Amino acid sequence: MQRTVPESRGPVRYGPPAPGPGLPVLPGLAAVLSGAAPHTAAEPPGGGPGLRTAACGYWTRRGLGCEPGDTVAADGPQSLLLALLAADGGDLMLPRPCPAWWIPQARLIGRSAYPVPTPAECGGVPDPYALLETVRRVRTEGGNPRLLLLSVADDPTATTAPPELLHLACEAALSEGLHIISDETWRDTRHRPDETVLLSPAEMCPDEVTVLSDLAGSLTPTAWPVAVARFPGTADGAARRARTLDVLTATGAAPSAPVAAAAAWALREPAAVRERAAQAARLHARLAAAAHEAVLAAGALARPPQAGRHLYVDLGPLGAGLSDLGVTDAMELEEYLGERIGAPAPGGHRFGDDPDELRVRLATGPLVGSTPQERLESLNSTEPLELPHVARALSILTSALEQLR
Q1: Cα–Cα dist 172/50, whole Å
Q2: What pTM, to 2 d.p., does this model score?
Q3: Of 85, 145, 267, 339, which is least packed with CB atoms within 10 Å of its CB?
Q4: Which residue from 49, 74, 12, 42 is spatially nearest to 251, judged by alpha carbons?
């Protein structure tokens, strides 16, 4: 049937995905998936023992020891976060801005989500004093805040939380009786891992933190959705896990058997996986630094990117020029800049930020190349910025930003 009315551009269906690496699938990972393709039996709700045991090993190597019975897996971070929120009876506190996929999960099950400003140092973690003030105000107004969702290595801001600030935020949350969900999807994508100290809230408050990780952050392709969660090894943690399993069972959110096999192999981190993750982090660090330099040269603002495959840009200082072009808010900026750089440039409104602010998230994945050959060349190069296809992509971005002045 022919449409006579344009389809509504809703904030969820047209929301931006997490920034992809723009890299071909690791051959060993593809081989594991292919070998498991004949498996017809479904994974049990919460993931099979092989996947959950591999997740335990991954976390133990990062100082977060656990048992398979403390973990669950699902077919992607959205399904898993939805189950975690549904397993708790309260409202959600979160930093502003936050990943685009967080708020829709709360709204889908009828929970309120209350944004809290972040400190000047970083995103991903609420300002501790603003958190206390917001929780008390919400309760005065009849709300029921029970959870704090944060990210120590953040999308969209590409920053990492200093341990002392994270500790204060966790203390504030616990003093108000909030359980903490720590999204650690991007923890292994730090641009300078030897210089950037990253701690998990689960190291600071082991009995009060559930850890969530989307494996697409550094281990698996985004097209193979799988995410894992680690619960505290306490009676309360076991009860939360049981309620989460109930939701995952009801929604049929188990990963497929081939994807689970590939994810388990990646979580065991053989040498090929470790090398690819390190190479990808170095490449995107170089690209993000170059993009950041172009942003500052154009007169815009952005925190120096520290992790991930993106950066978060404030084009407010260029507001006068943008206004002359008919761009006055984040929605118009998203459309205008996306057309000119030929890649998604989701506006800050996608991340719970003020729609009137001229902010966008720029991804580094499109700078890697447009063909598998170019992408591998970028990955293996010691000087990726000198490659013609990378230089061309950066030139397009630089030119688009300069035209806004």
Answers
A1: 37
A2: 0.94
A3: 339
A4: 74
Nearest 10 degrees: Cα torsion 53, 54, 58, 63: 20
- Helix (H), strand (E) at residue 107: helix 102-108
Both tokens of 179, joined, read 């359980």
Report how far residue 200's alpha carbon sits from residue 186's, in angstroms, rounded to the nearest whole number.
12
How big is the CA angle at 21 (ends 191 and 120), to the nearest 5 degrees?
45
Residue 95 β-bridge partners? 116
How big is the CA angle at 368 (ends 367 and 370), to the nearest 5 degrees? 90
pLDDT (tens digit per residue) in 51-100: 999 999 999 999 999 999 999 999 999 999 999 999 998 999 999 999 99
Q: How confident is the model over 338-388, as pLDDT tens digits?
A: 999 999 999 999 999 999 999 999 999 999 999 999 999 999 999 999 999
Distance linking the first and last C-alpha atoms of the chain: 46
Question: CB 392: neighbour CB atoms within 10 A?
Answer: 12
- Residue pair 183/213 in contact (Cβ under 8 Å)? The answer is yes
pLDDT in tens, 93-149: 999 999 999 999 999 999 999 999 999 999 999 999 999 999 999 999 999 999 999
Do residues 125 and 118 lie in contact, with contact meaning Cβ atoms separated by under 8 Å? Answer: yes
Dihedral (CA of 214, 220, 225, 231) sign? negative
Find the DSSP H helices in 154-270: 163-175, 201-204, 235-251, 257-267
Residue type, 188: D
Complete DSSP assignment for 254-272: PPPHHHHHHHHHHHT--HH
Helices 163-175 and 128-140: angle between axes, nearest 10 degrees? 20
